[in-house]
Amino acid sequence: MAPSIRSDERDPDEGAPPAVTRQDYRNAMARLGAAVTIVTTDGPGGRHGFTASAVCSVTDSPPTLLVCLNRGSSASAAIHANGVLCVNTLGGGHEHLSNLFGGRTPPAERFAAGEWKVSATGAPMLLDAVAAFDCRIVRSVEVGTHDVLFCEVVGLAQGGAREGLIYFSRRYHAVVGEPDA
Ligand SMILES: Cc1cc2nc3c(=O)[nH]c(=O)nc-3n(C[C@H](O)[C@H](O)[C@H](O)COP(=O)(O)O)c2cc1C
């Protein structure tokens, strides 16, 4: 299990009405388009996975990305227990997978859709992912309702899909690129 750090930053105005409400923040974030991924895990904590758009690169030396994980989600315990995950980037036509892994369905039903192989870390890797990042979790930081997981990328797979999948304005949008760009 990766070391967990609790953010000690506190709002100096705690108690005062928030300058930005949760709903205003959510509405503004809906305008920030993001790639849609399915984050998977397997190991002693069991197989699980969830849809995530809060994924971004931290650095390429060592190759590291971060994933924001809601601590209240059903996948949280398994991800922490296993210490590994695979970020599977979705393409156009994968909306059904995003909805399945973003809903309240049990893990076995989630993995019944799509074709998966076992990655080097043991996490499920989607065969037709646009790109897949196989990771070891090296650090976890608690911020509010979420854990920010810092993940060292130990394996990669790149598919030939022409379309990526973006979530923008609470809708999916397929974006077209070159196959191996
Ligand atoms: C497009 C989309 C993006 C999401 N991004 C995230 C994310 O970055 N982090 C997260 O914790 N949950 C995210 N979610 C929500 C989780 O996928 C969802 O809460 C979880 O899979 C369902 O929780 P449950 O397994 O407890 O039912 C997203 C959902 C959707 C549909």
Automatic annotation (TrEMBL):
It comes from Ancylobacter pratisalsi. InterPro entries: Flavin_Rdtase-like_dom, NADH-dep_flavin_reductase, RutF, Split_barrel_FMN-bd. Keywords: Flavoprotein, FMN, NAD, Oxidoreductase. Belongs to the non-flavoprotein flavin reductase family. RutF subfamily. Pfam families: Flavin_Reduct (PF01613). Its EC number is 1.5.1.42. GO terms for molecular function: FMN binding; FMN reductase (NADH) activity; riboflavin reductase (NADPH) activity. It catalyses: FMNH2 + NAD(+) = FMN + NADH + 2 H(+). This is FMN reductase (NADH) RutF. It is an enzyme of class 1 (oxidoreductase). GO terms for biological process: nitrogen utilization; uracil catabolic process. Residues 1-20 are annotated as: Disordered. It comes from the Bacteria. Catalyzes the reduction of FMN to FMNH2 which is used to reduce pyrimidine by RutA via the Rut pathway. Residues 29-174 form the Flavin reductase like domain.
